[in-house]
Amino acid sequence: MSITKPKTTRKPIFFPLSFFLSPEGQMVLSSLPLQMLLYFNAFFLPFWCLSEAIMLELKFSLLPLYYQCLLVAAYLTIVGVEAARLFLGYVGNLQEKVPKLAGFLLLSFIIEMPVLLFILTDHQVICMPLEMAVHGVLLCFLISEIVAASFALKDMAKHLARQFYLVQFEGRPGRGAPVVFMQLINEVLHEHKKVLVYLENILIYTETMDDHVPLVRQVLEKLLAVNLYVKIKAYMEFQVGVDGLMDANAMIL
């Protein structure tokens, strides 16, 4: 079936679309680097605990009483926080749960990092070579995980905000949601002067087929880049449906 070329006179082509977040095409937001760091960190934790238990036993009698209490409290804090931190990181990253991943970041940056730096920098703690080595490895894990989790959390937050606007558009018709949706699509397509968004429809102004096809391709690529998947209802002089292409001349303005 051949498609008749439009006339050379300038006219808008009515291009109705339906937008949705496709479960099949949904972008995976879990961070692979973060998951690898958490995996190796979980294996390293028992060796860290064993090393610290041995070193603490060797130097415990050489420490003042208040440093004995401080070190015991610090090690117990690190072990408890590390277990909770790894759990929140695993669940938050794999299941793309923003609150759990945020909790992972808070535990890492606010609690574990200061305690570990205290043990490494205080000279009266009497850090032995084995302790310096295992603390250094744990600190590298901690810094790398904070950086990776920050990027993953940023991507997840953007994706959730986009989902919120789309659900608002689909679930609350007539309450200002179409305007919000128009703003969202206009932000994506604002560079194209010949593309207008009206409610759930896109109007594309072209003079020739040679101009029209590349512009449609650019529009679809821009929408896919922000996870907006499109079901084309009508295009040019044909209606797009389950039975194929049908005549839809009435759709052209």
Automatic annotation (TrEMBL):
Top-rank taxon, per record: Eukaryota
Protein name (record): Transmembrane protein 17A-like
Bilayer topology: Multi-pass membrane protein
GO-annotated biological processes: non-motile cilium assembly
Record-linked InterPro entries: DNA/RNA_pol_sf (IPR043502), Rev_trsase/Diguanyl_cyclase (IPR043128), Uncharacterised_TM-17 (IPR019184)
Organism: Thamnophis sirtalis
One GO cellular component term: membrane
Compartment annotation: Cell projection, Cilium; Membrane
Pfam families reported for this sequence: Transmemb_17
Keyword list, A-Z: Cell projection, Membrane, Transmembrane, Transmembrane helix
Principal cellular location given in the protein's record: other
Underlying gene: LOC106538754
TM region positions: 36-53, 65-88, 100-120, 132-153
